[in-house]
């Protein structure tokens, strides 16, 4: 029988938050990725709903949540999440986040460790790699590029290919269309001043994470995504990293069964450990 999802809204200080909710038991909060909204987690939540109370908010500025005219930052999202959980009287939770959601989840756990039972970080953003600056500049250029420029690039692509230069016009145009649907993600990731973005990166703080952490990474994802996951695993004391070999991007959607199994095993292990030591 299909699980019965409940859709709810609540006014917070920064704006209206929308969330999906299903199941009963320990509280598991799912935070969506950069180019997604809470519905990304529906297949995973449905599978876990027989054992856990699952909630997936649309982050402030995403999906059906309000898009207030504010200056967005990771800290704004963290405080919005904190206010949301307090409003629902969810005192201690498991946090599961994908990409941008994982960055927010880890930042929340650093700020409020007493409120987090465990972290599952899926392809986490939020640490610098050797190609971070190049990628952010490339993403910003794609968003700012006019349709005329895309049309010209498409025209010269065959000539460029003959000269040994690859122009990924179609790929970049598809990415541009996705980016346009998520203006808040664009602002958070590459439209703010670089010093502000760097100030919220976590590589210098991950050593202070004191909650249990599992990192999930697709084996066929980009090299930068894999590098970021490895950085998290290296810097967080006691963190585990599991690779879903066939996984690429958006593991919660395309590898929902494998992600569900990993989350279930992680929470069960935490509960057994808690029972043994208490």
UniProtKB/TrEMBL annotation:
InterPro entries: AB_hydrolase_1, AB_hydrolase_fold, AB_hydrolase_sf. Residues 28-239 form the AB hydrolase-1 domain. Transmembrane segments: none annotated. Signal peptide: none annotated. PANTHER family: MONOACYLGLYCEROL LIPASE (PTHR43798). This is AB hydrolase-1 domain-containing protein.
